[in-house]
Predict the structure of Serine/threonine protein kinase.
Amino acid sequence: MTILPPHINGSASPEFDRSHLHQFVQCIDRELLPQLQLQNNSTHNNPVVVDRLPIPWQKLGAGNYAAVFSHPEYPHQVVKIYAPGMAGFEEEIEVYRRLGTHPAYSECLYAGANFLVLKRLYGTTLYDSVHQGLSIPPQVIIDIDRALDDARARGLNPSDVHGRNVMMDRGRGFVVDVSDFLHQGTCLKWQHLKRAYYWLYRPIIQPLKLHIPYPLLDVVRKSYRYYRRLL
């Protein structure tokens, strides 16, 4: 299966150049997929595992379903590859179809058998920002709130929106993972994160310019996961 979503136009900018996109897809098929070793680790509720990655590809991140990679010769696109046996691929294509072009989201430029080519978003996740002691302005939270409202207006149900799935760049907010936006039910992760932002981050962490160590952030993340299971 190959899909080139109809909302992609013929712009001359590199991220939307069709010939450039075609070259990137060929690079994925010829160089990345034959050598990539990607394992499903979802039984432990942990990210998928990348056992082998050919040079010069780089891993940008990994979730419970898929991992995202970049190539230095294609700075405007990334490829998201689903681990074997993982569901959600078709659903993510549908999410991007509904979102179309939006300033706070990526775009799906192409879909292969088990991978999506996405427009690359640059920035720092809020999770990493807290670790690095970066200032997170309120506009970032406002932008993400508006983006989630726009997704709901398109019949989606934003879920699993947490500090690693949202990021900021030059004072603006972005949502980088939409794979769970067709899930049913109520997800309060973003509401809880906003509460922590206004009650803890803004009055204490930000003024003191604290750098929160990753081990402590990981304890908070796991404690929150345990707390949600008790509710």
